[in-house]
Design goal:
The protein is an alpha+beta fold and 268 residues long. The protein has one domain. Helices cover 38% and strands 17% of the residues. The strands form four sheets. The chain has a four-stranded mixed beta sheet with strand order 4-1-2-6. Strands 3-8-7 form a three-stranded antiparallel beta sheet. A two-stranded antiparallel ribbon has the order 5-11. The N terminus and C terminus are likely disordered.
C-alpha cells in the first residue's frame, strides 16, 4: 500500500501494494488517500514502501488517527507535508492488544497440561471491524467513481460540499473502528493518547519487553481472510477485470504522473 502522492492541494494518493504498500514522500493535501496497487506496478524512489497487504493495516493507515500523527510529526518541503519514515512511521504507535485482553486456557482438561494464550472474541472483533470498515470505504469509493465517471480527486472534492456525504460517513465509521481498536474514548484527545502510548511502548522496548508491532497481529486466526483482491492494476494486467479495473488504472495514471513524461512507476 502506498501512501502519499503529490496532489494539487486536496489530497495525496497513498498506495498500498498487494504484498507491499508505498507512498510518495511529499504531498500538498487535506487528507491522505490510500489505495492498494498491484505488485506488478514498480514504484520508483519517489515513493516509500509499506510492506502490508491486509485490510486491517490499510484501515489503520487510512484513518484520521494516523493522518493527524503524520501531519504533526512529518517534515515539510516548501510548505508541503513530507512523509518521513523515521519521524512518522517509526514513531507511530499501533494498537496494542495486551495479554490482559486475551485469556489463558488449558489446551486439554487434564491436570498439569500446558497453558496457552487464547485471543478473546472481543479482541478479534475489534481487529475485524477495522478491516471491514476499510473494505467498505474502498467499495464505496469504487461505486461512486464508477457511477459518476469520477477520478479519486473528483471524488474527494465532494467532501468540500457541506451536508450529508456517504464518503464522509464511511471515513467516520473507519475512524470509529480504529479508535475502538486503540481503546480510545470517543472524546479523547488523539495526539495526547498517541503520545502517551508512544512513551509507554518506548519504555517497554528499553526494558526488553515485547510490544505489538505494525501490521496485522500475529495471533489473528485465518489471516488470509483479512486480504482482499481489489487493487489498482496497469491497463495490460491479465487480472484486470472490467470497468473498476479500467477506472482504477486511469486514476493511477492521473495521480502517479509527477511529470508528463516522467511517471514515478513503470509496469515492465
Amino acid at each position: 500500500m502506498a501512501a502519499c502522492q503529490p496532489g494539487g492541494g486536496i489530497f495525496h494518493l497513498a498506495v498500498m501494494l498487494r504484498k507491499a504498500k508505498y507512498s510518495s514522500r511529499v504531498a500538498a493535501t487535506k487528507r491522505p488517500v490510500f489505495e492498494f496497487v498491484s505488485d506488478a506496478v514498480r514504484p520508483n524512489d519517489s515513493l516509500s514502501v509499506f510492506a502490508f497487504a491486509d485490510d486491517y493495516s490499510f484501515g489503520i493507515l487510512q484513518s484520521g488517527i494516523h493522518w493527524l500523527w503524520f501531519t504533526t510529526k512529518c517534515s515539510t518541503l516548501k510548505g508541503d507535508f513530507r512523509y518521513t519514515s523515521d519521524t512518522v512511521f517509526d514513531t507511530f504507535p499501533w494498537p496494542q492488544f495486551a495479554s490482559s485482553s486475551r485469556r489463558k486456557e488449558a489446551l486439554t482438561k487434564k491436570p498439569g497440561t500446558e497453558m496457552s494464550l487464547v485471543t478473546s472474541a472481543a479482541t478479534i472483533e475489534k481487529i475485524r471491524a477495522v478491516a471491514e470498515a476499510a473494505r467498505a470505504l474502498r467499495n464505496l469509493r469504487r461505486e461512486i467513481m464508477d457511477a459518476n465517471g469520477w477520478s479519486l480527486r473528483e471524488l474527494y472534492k465532494s467532501l468540500e460540499t457541506p451536508g450529508e456525504n456517504r464518503l464522509r460517513t464511511a471515513h467516520a465509521a473507519l475512524d470509529a473502528a480504529v479508535r475502538a481498536a486503540y481503546g480510545m474514548k470517543p472524546d479523547e484527545d488523539i495526539l495526547a493518547f498517541l503520545l502517551k502510548l508512544n512513551l509507554e511502548l518506548a519504555d517497554k522496548e528499553a526494558k526488553g519487553e515485547a510490544i505489538m508491532p505494525p501490521g496485522l497481529p500475529a495471533f489473528v486466526p485465518e489471516p488470509e481472510s483479512f486480504v482482499s483482491r481489489d487493487c489498482v492494476r496497469s491497463p495490460d494486467d491479465p487480472e484486470a477485470d472490467g470497468s473498476t479495473a479500467k477506472s482504477a488504472a486511469e486514476a493511477a495514471h492521473y495521480y502517479f504522473m509527477a511529470k508528463e513524461n516522467d511517471p514515478p512507476y513503470r509496469t515492465d
